[in-house]
């Protein structure tokens, strides 16, 4: 079934320039000098893994583990209150040539939760991040989300969401990258169990050497 989330077309807002960095939110690091030059990115899929995000976005620095908040800012000043759930699918009905299965997205789902990693990134990597997420082709759209850290601090981040996709399970390799990233960065154990319980597809082929390499490095870090 092809899912078209047309109501999310208003999510195409870019992360605002000059997001205010609260040092208390992010472990006391003085980020005010970076204001206007950096942005926060909430990752919930393959970019949970450090080796993965650094392939295309070397400026990414770990800030915090966080949970998507019910409050999602959309359409300029209006607000909606949502819970979210992790899902997997083929964007625009096309299987990923990189991952050979469904890739991650989020959708509104009362009572569910999505945990992820907040990365601080230089704006010089904004175009490379958009390219990785297929923004130009309409694979994902950029959205602005509120996230709550494990310490209870609220922060505003850039993230991405598929609005037109066909549900499909991830490949074993894609699932592994997500689970390795969750373990590496210390996502809640119960959430890690949910990720580990995801049923992958039956793809038994290979992925690129680049992806195989980040999996090996991720395994070495987490064992």
Automatic annotation (TrEMBL):
Alphabetically ordered keywords of this record: Lyase, Phosphoprotein
The enzyme's E.C. designation: 4.3.2.9
Taxonomic placement: Eukaryota, Metazoa, Chordata, Craniata, Vertebrata
Family annotation (Pfam families): AIG2_2
Binding residues annotated for substrate, in chain numbering: 41-46, 174
SUPFAM superfamilies per record: Gamma-glutamyl cyclotransferase-like
Assembly information from the UniProt record: Homodimer.
Residue ranges crossing the lipid bilayer per the database entry: none
Family: Belongs to the gamma-glutamylcyclotransferase family.
Function field: Catalyzes the formation of 5-oxoproline from gamma-glutamyl dipeptides and may play a significant role in glutathione homeostasis. Induces release of cytochrome c from mitochondria with resultant induction of apoptosis.
Protein name: Gamma-glutamylcyclotransferase
